[in-house]
Amino acid sequence: MSRDSLLRLLARVMRCGGLGLSFVLCLACAPAQAGVQGLGYEEQTLTVEGERRTVRVPKGYRLEWLGGMDAPRMLAFAANGDLFAGSRTGTVYRVPPPYTKPEVLVEPGGYPHSVAFRPGEILIAKTDGVYRAPYRAGQASIARDALKLLAALPAGGGHDSRTVGVGPDGRVYVSLGIQRNCSDQYLGAGYSFDDRRGGVLALREVGGKASWEPFASGLRNPVGFAWQPQTGAMYASNNGPDHLGYDQPPEYFSKLTAGSFHGMPWFQFDGQQVQRDDCVSSNPPRPINEVTIPAATFPSRNAPLGMAFVPRGAMDAQLEFDAVVALHGSWGTRPDGGFIGSSATRRVPKLVAVRFLDGQAKRVDDLVTGFQLPDGRRWARPAGVAFGPDGALYFSSDSEASGLFRLKRMR
């Protein structure tokens, strides 16, 4: 119940003579998200590619520009502290400490969007599959022909990023989106291999053979996913469709469980309830009452991409176990979400924190803002996020200032 609702309830109780008045007074005075401390902010100026830029960061933190890469996307740290980045340009980067001099690890071609690690090997997710190669900590390069296909994925056009991760259970997971706003595609029976899209897959490895099985379905484009440290639950960011205007539907931050169904493209959550979307005429593979409501939302047209949870000991105690999500900012403009409006009305790229309490998402706060100028021009667009062994937050920008940033706590 909201604070305003509680106050209205209090007024009714007082008019009626007041059963349980002291209890209601206690509730009315409590903050809406008790126990989740708000963030304070301060402005900071830094130099990025020769230009002075002003950002807003949490008090006690500094943002640093570490240097350029060509369209970096998702980030991952190896056990020895080396940072790795996929990219839009067919290159996988290795960035050893102090993270200022990127090196080319391998150029596998295509779209190597993301990287993950298992003991003795590196995994690289491209549009058409997840590839593997032997890898040892500190290795500076990989021969292109050392990469072997682990398991194929539907390729095709539209939403061609693939994010790979290794879960706490040791299994390999990969996310992929449907092609367009309303493509009749689903991770389930009755759909061809090429149309099994829109969610997260888990790798099944038996007898030396690897194949994908659905984990969570009904997500239009779940780019980032990670596991909440307290509960071990998987959460994913998800891009909503563009056909319902500027304000609908909200972007999702969803808890994913084995077999969960998140509705798209047949159903949309409008911020209050799940509704049928008539943009796709096929019968939904599952009924509306099986749609999982998102754990939190972001305003529409924000294009959430990478995400990571704040591990114990990183940043500061009030952010521990919260999720940091990169909002890329889409092209949609007011009033109807098309291209023709003023670019100043586009959603601003930024980093946000999804605040958790007792293992549950409670609200969303800004973390780092200022990447878009008042006229709508953007000088950076966050894409991938990861926490380093130093406890700092690293994030990539894949356009405008294309490279790597670090948000560091000043001790």
Detailed description of the structure:
The chain has 411 residues and is mainly beta. The chain has two domains: 1-30; 42-409, Neuraminidase (6 Propeller), CATH 2.120.10.30. The protein contains two helices and 29 strands. The strands form eight sheets. It has a five-stranded mixed beta sheet with strand order 12-13-14-15-19, with no helix packed on it. A hairpin with a 4-residue loop joins strand 20 and strand 21. Helix 1 packs antiparallel against helix 2. The radius of gyration is 22 Å and the shape is globular. The two termini are 39 Å apart. 44% of the residues are buried. Mean pLDDT is 92; it is low at 1-34.
Chain-wise SSE layout:
Layout: H1 3-16, H2 21-29, E1 41-48, E2 51-58, E3 61-68, E4 72-77, E5 83-87, E6 92-95, E7 103-106, E8 114-118, E9 121-126, E10 129-134, E11 148-152, E12 163-166, E13 172-176, E14 199-206, E15 209-217, E16 225-227, E17 234-238, E18 251-256, E19 260-261, E20 267-269, E21 274-276, E22 296-298, E23 304-309, E24 323-327, E25 350-357, E26 360-368, E27 380-387, E28 393-400, E29 403-409
Parallel strand pairs: 15-19
Antiparallel strand pairs: 1-2, 3-29, 4-5, 5-6, 6-7, 8-9, 9-10, 10-11, 12-13, 13-14, 14-15, 16-17, 17-18, 18-22, 20-21, 23-24, 24-25, 25-26, 27-28, 28-29
Which descriptors apply to this entry?
4-stranded antiparallel beta sheet; disordered N terminus; 6% helix; Neuraminidase; 5-stranded mixed beta sheet; 29 strands; 2 domains; 2 helices; 411 residues; mainly beta
